[in-house]
Amino acid sequence: xxxxFFGPPGAGKTTLARALLCRLRERGYTTKIALVHxxxxxxxxxxxxxxxxxxxxxxxxxxxxxxxxxxxxHSHAFSAVARLVYMLPPRNPVWxxxxxxxxxxxxxxxxxxxxxxxxxxxxxxxxxxxCSLSVFSRTVDEAVFLRALxxxxxxxxxxxVRVDPDVQEARLRNRKRSEPxxxxxxxxxxxxxLQFAPIIESVNALLQKHGRPVVVVQLDEPSSIDxxxxxxxxxxxxxxxxxxxxxGHAVAGATQADQRCMICDDSIQxxxxxxxxxxxxxxxxxxxxxxxxxxxxxxxxRGDHFTRATILALATYxxxxxxxxxxxxxxxxxxxxxxxxxxxxVWAWVSLLSYVTTLGLVTFVLRFTSAYRAxxxxxxxxxxxxxxxxRALAAAVMASIAGLVILWLRWNELEPNFAIxxxxxxxxxxxxxxxxxxxxxxxxxxxxxxxxxPERVFRDGLLLATVGFAAWGQFWxxxxxxxxxxxxxxxxxxxxxVIYVAIRLWPEQIKGIEPTYLPREWWSFALPVMMMxxxxxxxxxxxxxxxxxxxxISEAGLFALxxxxxxLIQLSRAAVSIYFSPTASAVYERGDFPDLxxxxxxxxVLSLAGGAMLALPVLILTGPLLNLFGQxxxxxxxxxxxxxxxxxxxxxxxxxxxxxxMTGHERSAAAIMLVFAALTIAGCAITTIHYGAMGAAVVTSxxxxxxxxxxxxxxxxxxxxxxxxxxxxxxxxxxxxxxxTAPQQRAGETTLNVLR
Length: 756
Prior knowledge:
- This protein has 756 residues and is mostly helical.
- It has two domains: 2-245, Rossmann fold (3-Layer(aba) Sandwich), CATH 3.40.50.300; 296-720, no CATH class.
- It has helices spanning 13-26, 50-68, 75-87, 93-113, 126-137, 142-151, 165-178, 190-193, 196-209, 225-241, 245-261, 284-357, 361-374, 378-409, 416-444, 448-473, 480-505, 519-549, 553-590, 593-620, 622-627, 638-651, 656-662, 666-718, 724-741, 743-751, and strands spanning 2-6, 31-34, 119-122, 157-162, 215-218, 268-269.
- A six-stranded mixed beta sheet has the order 5-4-1-3-2-6, with helices on both faces.
- It is elongated and about 90 Å long.
- It starts with a strand and ends in a 5-residue tail after the last helix.
């Protein structure tokens, strides 16, 4: 059942919606509230409202972009927006965009809510949207209103909230004072808000004239809220009594399956877990049908959630990439080719050793800790977390000590600046290792964005600020050592941030329990993954390492910069894996093979789409981008373009390595990677002799593409899963045929849009 409020701004729609939510939950009804955006007060942690504003804008963008990935599924929403905006076009372009995206997202949430058991309360929905379009288009025509009302879906209960003009003005002024500063920009002006009352009164009269029942209430004083809610509650109970038991049984079964699915739309605030749904005897047939329908909806919602999470992760990665590029730009300009070559060489070793000393335990956490959490094995979950942290820390400390000892033994053979730079880099290894493992734990706890924010945004942002401040103030000599010290400090601060987030998200179920360990089983998984992590870093850094070993430090700097540009395209696969890895592990643990195929197909499409979006501008602007870093780097653009094309073709394969490791095929995946890592090393060693950095670029891209082809073949043989793009095209074509051959089903959905 859907309950919809409409009324002028300041009438008390949101207040009544929340009061009704509490009342219905007290009565034992499963109730949800949708699309409540109004902040209660200025937050202590966000006094200016910047976080609120960015969150609101980001939610709107992500929701709309996610819907564009399914144009057929969401065709009804796009059609509704087009027709409503065509009839009542807002004159202000900002409000045109805002109202359009609001109706678009509202249509999708309404569609998801129309066939579920809980009572969904909208503090404002389609009737309010029609009134808003009328105000912003300055249209007062009953004929146009009637046509618009016939296009929108019909709620079960419509509640018109009247307000006295003087009371409205006072409430709007109080709201403005209590809101964060930036949140006020989302509100229309006072004169515009006062234009709503006559428009809404006309719409209400038109609804009742054409037989649409409307509950008319007025909230003058806070003390009258119980009386108003009583009136609305009576109308809802009357409508509920008219529901068919058979329909109620089927939907109840579907709702239970929805609850088992544990997936819900982010824009709907779910009920408190302590509120139980009403218990009805469920006939077996109806329950089976309902469960099947709910399972289909769960898959669709998981796909939508996956899309939104990937877009948010990709946006975070792009933000981080911008900061990384700014850091690389500043460092390259300050250190020039030789100094930047030393920095790149040291950081290549730091990256390689840091990922190796995680011992594959980041992937281990995503694979096993996620599975233990899904199966409520809390003792094993806690044990796996402690196992990962302690072993990774021990390995990182031992690697650092060994590296410093070796460096001390060869100190006299190395240039002093180079030796000190290596020492600083080696000391950074334990910090990076710990924050990588910590980020994996945060992903298991559900903090997908919080897991990548420290490394991608916080660390590079702090490094950029530190180096920029040093360059501006000239407090320290601007050399490789200073940049690496700044990297050490920013990495330490990042680790502190990761620890703080992990503590905040720490599940209550694993507090104060004894851990259980399965070291033999865990090591059998972690060691192959550790080898894969090291080999992947080695394949990526082989060009820099080989050029550095051969004494071509300047060419190593050129290759490193070109490779960093190409790594922008790899961000699409990284963003997809943020959500894909723990979800694939949980799905595989349940044995849901069709859902795993669906998840992999969706991940591949998102990986390719993100890769294309990033690769095209980089390929077109390669020359200008390299020129930004100075004349030392404005060389042959073909090196960067070759590496970019290799990353783009790899993105078309999707998260294949993640799929293998999350399904227990890590050993075969490691064997495949070992072969292609050896080919990369041998190929770079041979080609750099005659072709330098360009030869290394061709070999790096060629082996990367061949490796992905080999993984696709292996996945088909061991899991029976076709390449993700093949699955996606097949699913799209099948869905298109079903849509074309079932127009009556779509017509049945739009029948709800006709005004009674």
